[in-house]
Structures are given as structure tokens and as C-alpha cells.
Design goal:
This protein is α+β, with helices and mostly antiparallel strands. It has 15 helices and 26 strands. Helix 9 runs antiparallel to helix 11.
Length: 537
């Protein structure tokens, strides 16, 4: 999940979203043909994801794959640079506090159906997310529930009043993907790629679910960075997004130039690096554990959660899932540019101690039973362990290691591999899960709040059913402070979650997005469409 979202669809982004649900901007390195060739105008840029994105309504998805595709179709009001500074997007001017924000639109912006983008269109996007009856997963992440917007079409201004204090209101509201046209009246249009309803550089021209998506560059697009003039040389005319579940297949396609870009999380990294291909590296959360803490689930008991964590050698699991290329987590906010930095993890997770874990389960009433599986009140300690197949082959190996170590503790573990849409529907729909290895990517700490507090699905996003009064109290204090002034309080709030094992962040990945006959930037876990440049070689 990325809030929100890495390029390969490994996290739920959130804005970065960034759920996603889930990484950084990294510079590219390597020489290869892309560096030695000449810029070529037009052509087709072909990239891949490991799973289908599902519905693409920008106000309805927090899955990283959907967010990555929507970046081509919808522009935000502002763009964040690598330092987190706001730059012009659809808006040319802005001002904000923790309660209100005003954006003045650039002149001459058009929807992809050719109609002018109005301030009323922008206000409709914000109002839709802010209205609780619409149950947008971006509510509480980018836009606070109850937020309303007022438009002045003559002055091209939109003023929003936040439904609750938002310490990063400019950053969050300014990152909302803006739709327009028929999609605002009929959101099924947006779910299918928003034909004629986009504000971005590309428009959707073909959708074949589970296979590929084709996007065509708009000739009238002039308002985004790198969109026009000499600086636009090398932009592709067409983008094709293919669904390629197997990483080895994607690596082969990249080598043969049937793909121009693909993220690699497994052993194929070494083969492609040896070819000295260009790559932009993405830091993203990959090692995170979430427990279903709703009533009657084993994870509702903190003693059980602590025993389960103590029974895991988390550094070993981290090395497996990142193929030895990651590093220990220091916090929940990983998407660059981060609003707050710090270390809320070190010293706050219990160390590996199998004997202590067994004693903790004994004390919690889970006694060894038949076949070595613990029981309490005649019920076996059985857990489902869900992991995303979109996260690459190493996640299966990591899940198997967790299964093995928990078996030593006396826990029966049933592995549940799921693709990105299934992960989303299980966490926010059926709720039929015990432990999830699906990480969340964030660029600001307040984006985490709706996932860690408040109502559970279907009324809210608190998919784990977390009830941590200390976290809630610290969030309330931090939310009243604008920008980085509240960072120490946000750090304390995050620490409160980790100490009680409401969430277990333990390892980040460093995933290269390789390019062949193309170069690009990666920011907040996804390729930046306006940065793509095609090369002949």
C-alpha cells in the first residue's frame, strides 16, 4: 500500500500516498546505452508492474500501482521537489495554515476533453474526498473528513477549510490528483482510466485489465514541469504499462528493450546491474507486520503480539525479503521528501528471544498441545499470514521463514499469498486475516493517522483495529502545530505505536528501477512522467 506506493507496486501509498499504499526519490546511476545515445522525440515508453492496479479512480485508490498509473493522468495543485519544497502544478500561487488553504490556478489549463479546468472542478475533487458519505480512502490522509472547498471561477481561486487541523495542509491538499470533465459526474469513467477527465500529461487510450494499459501524450499539455520547450525533448508520445507478474520475465524484457523500465526487488538486480543499465533507486518500507487486533483475534492481545515478535529474528527476515540489499527501519515515514525525520524504531522492538516468547504465550494461557500447536480453551493458535505477490519473489521466502519461526513457538501458520487488489479488498473489505506483511508508504506522519486510529472498515481505514489512547492524544497535540514544528510530537506518537506492537516496522528495501533506452526520475515511489526521456542507441 502506498500512501500510498514503490514503482513495482510493493506498497500501499499514500499520496505519496503513500498507502499504500508505500519510497524515496533516488538518483540514477550507471552508463549503458541510455547514457550514450541521443535523445529521441516521441516513441513508446514501456514499463511494467507485477499486478493489475484494479479500479483507477484517483479518489478511491491508495494502492501504489494505481497511484503510479494515475500520475500520468492527473496533476496535483503543487509539485514537491526533492527537498520537499512546493513548486507550481495546476496552481501558480498558494497560501496555507493548519486550517485553511487557498490556491490560485494557472491560466489556460484544460481537461483532456478540451474543456477549461475551473476552480469549481478543483473544489469538487476536494469536496468529494472530504464528504464522509463517499468513503474515500484519501479522507484523513490527504484531506481531513469534513473539509469543504469554495471556488471563485472568475479569480481562478479555490479556498478550502479543513475539517480538522492538518499540520501539513499545503503538502497534503496540494497533492490531491485533480480530475475534471465527465469523470466528476460519473466516477465509473475514472475507475476505467478517466478518458477525457484528466489534467495530466497523458490520457488513457486502451485498457486491457490484467495485461496492459496504453496512454497517449496530450499535445495541448503545457503546464507541468518539463512539458514544453527545449526541455521537453525526448518525451515519449505513448506510455504502455504492462502487467508482468514474474520478475525474471520482466528482466528479460528489459534486456531485450521490450521494456524501458522495471523495478527489481530480487536476484535479477545483480544481472541487470552487471549490464551497467541506468537505474533510479527507491527506498521503501518492505518489512512491516500488522496484526488484526479486532476482538477475538489472537493479535488483539498485546502479550501474544509481543511473543510473536520475540520469536522472529527480524534482521534475518529483513535480509531475506530485501535480497540482502535493505537496511533496518527507523520509522514509518520513508517516502522522500519526508516531512519529518527521526528514529522511532531502534530500541523499541523486543529483541529475538524464543525462550521469552514461549514463556509469554504460557502466561497468556496458550499451552503446548497436540502436534506442538498451542491451544487455549480448546482452540488452536492458528494464524493466517498474508503477503503480497506484487512485492516480488523474496516476499514468499520471507513469509516461509516467519512461518518456520512461529512454528517453533507452537503457532500454526497458514500462508496467504495475494495480489495488490486482493490485499486491498481483504484489509479494507472482508477483514478475514490475522497478520499482514503488506507495508504502507508515507511521506508525512499525519498520513498514517487514519490507518492507526479511528473507525475500522467499512467506516474508516483503521484496518488493524488499533486502539492506542497514547497515540491518539499525541496526534491531537501534533496536529495543532504547523509543519515541522510538530515533528517531535509526531515522533513520540509513532513510538507509542511501536512500543505496544500495534505495528512492527523492521526493514526497508532499496529497490532499483532499471531503465534501458530511457532515463527518468523516481519520486515518492513512482516514475515522474514529465521526467521520462527516450534515447536511441
Amino acid at each position: 500500500m502506498r500512501g500510498a506506493a514503490a514503482h513495482a507496486g510493493r506498497v500501499l501509498p499514500l499520496v505519496a500516498v503513500t498507502v499504500l499504499l508505500a519510497g524515496g526519490c533516488g538518483g540514477g546511476s550507471g552508463q549503458g546505452a541510455a547514457a550514450d545515445g541521443k535523445l529521441v522525440d516521441g516513441g513508446t515508453f514501456t514499463t511494467s508492474y507485477t499486478s493489475d492496479p484494479g479500479a483507477l479512480d484517483p479518489a478511491k485508490t491508495v494502492m501504489s500501482i494505481g497511484i503510479g498509473i494515475n500520475l500520468y493522468l492527473y496533476d496535483p495543485l503543487i509539485h514537491l521537489d526533492g527537498r520537499g519544497e512546493a513548486g507550481a502544478g495546476l496552481a501558480q500561487k498558494w497560501q496555507a495554515t493548519t486550517r485553511t488553504a487557498t490556491f490560485t490556478l494557472r491560466p489556460g489549463i484544460t481537461c483532456s476533453d478540451g474543456s477549461p479546468l475551473t476552480a469549481s472542478d478543483v473544489a469538487a475533487n476536494i469536496d468529494y474526498i472530504g464528504d464522509p458519505k463517499n468513503k474515500s480512502p484519501l479522507a484523513g490522509v490527504l484531506i481531513q473528513p469534513g473539509t469543504t472547498a469554495h471556488a471563485d471561477d472568475g479569480q481562478r481561486t479555490v479556498t478550502l477549510t479543513s475539517g480538522a487541523p492538518d499540520a501539513f495542509l499545503l503538502r497534503n491538499a496540494g497533492s490531491v490528483p485533480i480530475a475534471c470533465g465527465d469523470g466528476l459526474k460519473d466516477r465509473t469513467v475514472l475507475a476505467k482510466g478517466g478518458k477525457g477527465s484528466g489534467t495530466g500529461m497523458f490520457t488513457m487510450t486502451e485498457v486491457v485489465p490484467g495485461d496492459h494499459y496504453t496512454l497517449t501524450r496530450r499535445k495541448d499539455y503545457r503546464w507541468g514541469p518539463g512539458a514544453s520547450g527545449k526541455g521537453a525533448k525526448g518525451l515519449p508520445d505513448t506510455v504502455k504499462v504492462r502487467v508482468v507478474p514474474n520478475e525474471t520475465t520482466a528482466a528479460n524484457l528489459l534486456t531485450s528493450k521490450e521494456l524501458n523500465a522495471a523495478a527489481m526487488s530480487g536476484p535479477e538486480q545483480k544481472r541487470l546491474a552487471a549490464q551497467k543499465l541506468f537505474h533510479a533507486d527507491v527506498q521503501a518500507p518492505l518489512g512491516e507486520l500488522y496484526f488484526n487486533q479486532s476482538t477475538a483475534r489472537p493479535g488483539a492481545d498485546e502479550k501474544v503480539r509481543r511473543a510473536l515478535v520475540q520469536a522472529l529474528n527480524l534482521p534475518d527476515v529483513g535480509k531475506v525479503i530485501t535480497n540482502g540489499t535493505g537496511k533496518p527501519s527507523q520509522g514509518m515515514v520513508t517516502d522522500e521528501p519526508r516531512a519529518c525525520a527521526g528514529d522511532s524504531v531502534t530500541g523499541n522492538l523486543p529483541p529475538y528471544d524464543l525462550a521469552a516468547a514461549k514463556s509469554a504465550l504460557d502466561a497468556a494461557g496458550w499451552a503446548p498441545g497436540s502436534g506442538g500447536i498451542r491451544t487455549r480453551g480448546g482452540k488452536r493458535l492458528t494464524l493466517s499470514l498474508m503477503y503480497g505477490t506484487q512485492n516480488g519473489p523474496t516476499m514468499a521466502a520471507g513469509a516461509e521463514l516467519v512461518q518456520k519461526e512461529w512454528k517453533s513457538l507452537g503457532v500454526e501458520v497458514k500462508l496467504k499469498p495475494v495480489d495488490s487488489p486482493a490485499l486491498n479488498s481483504t484489509l479494507f473489505g472482508s477483514g478475514n486475516w490475522d497478520v499482514s506483511m503488506g507495508p504502507i508508504a508515507l511521506s508525512a506522519p499525519n498520513q498514517l493517522v487514519p490507518f492507526m486510529a479511528g473507525p475500522t472498515p467499512p467506516k474508516g481505514l483503521n484496518f488493524s483495529g488499533i486502539d492506542n489512547p497514547e497515540y491518539a492524544a499525541l496526534v491531537q497535540k501534533a496536529s495543532a502545530k504547523a509543519g515541522t514544528a510538530g515533528c517531535p510530537l509526531w515522533q513520540q506518537a509513532e513510538t507509542a505505536l511501536i512500543k505496544h506492537l500495534n505495528v512492527v516496522p523492521y526493514y526497508n528495501s532499496l529497490t532499483p528501477v532499471f531503465g534501458n533506452a530511457a532515463r527518468f526520475e523516481v519520486r515518492q515511489g513512482s516514475i515522474v512522467p514529465s521526467s521520462i526521456r527516450m534515447y536511441a542507441n
